[in-house]
């Protein structure tokens, strides 16, 4: 069983975040089979990256115009990015950004459906998209499709991450110590790979 001291040292969180997150994270890992030092190191590294060091449990979407085009240029037009992205003249329209960039993806409806913003990233691993929320109803025992904000709660933010991890076979990939494959399953690419690897090295140094 992961100790509170190990959790803090492996993640590098301060005392306040340690006290907030240790119990829900430890319980979630135990429940979903993240129960070996190597599995725990990989999990803590990835959720640490996705949550900005256990500080955020909801996607911000406060994108600047240029960043929107750089990151989501295939999903948003230049005109939309200028209209809804943050500029020196206006704040970002986070709701419209979410609805556009996540439209017709991961179980979401079109832009008008509002699904993109409704099912934006939440929880420690940033669960995104209606289909991913739907997949969590059974393992979590609550209807997070009907009430997606539940995933911003400490307990469900941690448990949703662990359940999603298990559903997608990441325990077995962690057993093989294949960080690249884990990142691709979570992110679809290798975004943030250096930070993820740094966090993994730190966690392994404590747990393994």
Largest sheet: none
The helix/strand order is HHHHHHHHHHHHH
What is the percent of helical residues?
55-70%
> For the residues shown, what is the average pLDDT?
96
CATH level-two architecture of the largest domain: Orthogonal Bundle
Amino- and carboxy-terminal Cα gap: 13 Å
Strand content: under 5%
Parts with pLDDT < 50 across at least 5 consecutive residues: none
Q: How many β-strands, per DSSP?
A: 0
Strand and helix map with partners:
Elements: H1 4-11, H2 15-31, H3 37-50, H4 65-72, H5 78-84, H6 94-101, H7 115-118, H8 130-135, H9 137-140, H10 154-167, H11 170-175, H12 179-187, H13 193-207
Keyword list:
208 residues, mainly alpha, 2 domains, globular
Question: How would you characterize the overall build of this protein?
Answer:
The mean pLDDT is 96. The chain is mainly alpha-helical. The radius of gyration is 17 Å and the shape is globular. It is built from 13 helices and no strands. It has two domains: 4-56 and 154-207, Lysozyme, CATH 1.10.530.10; 65-118, no CATH class.
Offer a quick outline of the entry:
This protein is an all-alpha fold and 208 residues long. Helices cover 58% and strands 0% of the residues. The model has no long low-confidence stretch (mean pLDDT 96).
């Amino acid at each position: 069983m992961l100790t509170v001291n190990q959790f803090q040292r492996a993640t590098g969180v301060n005392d306040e975040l340690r006290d907030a997150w240790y119990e829900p994270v430890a319980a979630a890992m135990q429940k979903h089979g993240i129960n070996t030092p190597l599995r725990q190191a990989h999990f803590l590294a990835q959720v640490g990256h996705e949550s900005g060091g256990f500080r955020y449990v909801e996607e911000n979407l406060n994108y600047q115009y240029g960043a929107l085009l750089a990151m989501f240029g295939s999903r948003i037009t230049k005109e939309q990015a200028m209209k809804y992205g943050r500029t020196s003249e206006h704040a970002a329209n986070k709701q419209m950004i979410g609805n556009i960039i996540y439209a017709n993806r991961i179980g979401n409806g079109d832009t008008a459906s509002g699904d993109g913003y409704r099912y934006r990233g939440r929880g420690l691993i940033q669960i995104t998209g209606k289909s991913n929320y739907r997949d969590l109803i059974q393992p979590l025992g609550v209807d997070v499709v009907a009430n997606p904000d539940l995933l911003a709660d400490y307990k469900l933010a941690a448990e949703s991450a662990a359940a999603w991890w298990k559903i997608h076979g990441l325990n077995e990939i962690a057993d093989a110590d294949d960080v690249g494959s884990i990142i691709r399953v979570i992110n679809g690419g290798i975004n943030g790979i250096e930070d993820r690897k740094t966090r993994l090295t730190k966690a392994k140094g404590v747990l393994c």
